From TrEMBL:
This is DUF1959 domain-containing protein. It comes from the Archaea.
Length: 130
């Protein structure tokens, strides 16, 4: 007797999608932006995303680069506040809002912008990997 498709382990199919040419380029770009290895990002994507999100990952990444965080401040753009919540949903909205607000507060309190952004990016990376 055959089982239902949704009962099957889809990890191999998801991995195949992520290693196709266009998707692999997007994965490498996202991993580079986050400062993590390609393999770690692939594991996160396989675990969190469904097939539909994975199939559209490359186009979501391109659209996010063009349209994400255009109306907000430079700190939000550097952290990818909208990019990693709306276009490539790797971080929960509330978590990202907290990271962005704390980073802006650090900049406002006199911390160097580069240091605040580096700490914010580290928190985004931690949120993605958790």
């Amino acid at each position: 007797m055959t089982g239902y498709l949704y009962e099957k382990d889809l990890r191999q199919m998801k991995f195949t999608i992520l290693t196709s040419t266009r998707h692999d380029e997007a994965v490498r770009a996202i991993a580079g932006r986050l400062g993590i290895s390609d393999a770690k990002l692939r594991m996160v994507l396989i675990r969190r995303f469904d097939m539909s999100l994975l199939e559209n990952l490359e186009s979501r990444w391109q659209m996010g680069q063009e349209h994400a965080d255009n109306d907000s401040d430079p700190a939000a753009k550097d952290l990818g506040c909208e990019l990693f919540t709306r276009f490539v949903p790797l971080v929960e909205t509330e978590t990202m809002r907290s990271i962005c607000d704390e980073t802006k507060a650090m900049i406002g309190d006199g911390s160097s912008r580069d240091e605040a952004i580096a700490r914010g990016k580290a928190r985004v990376r931690e949120a993605v990997l958790s």
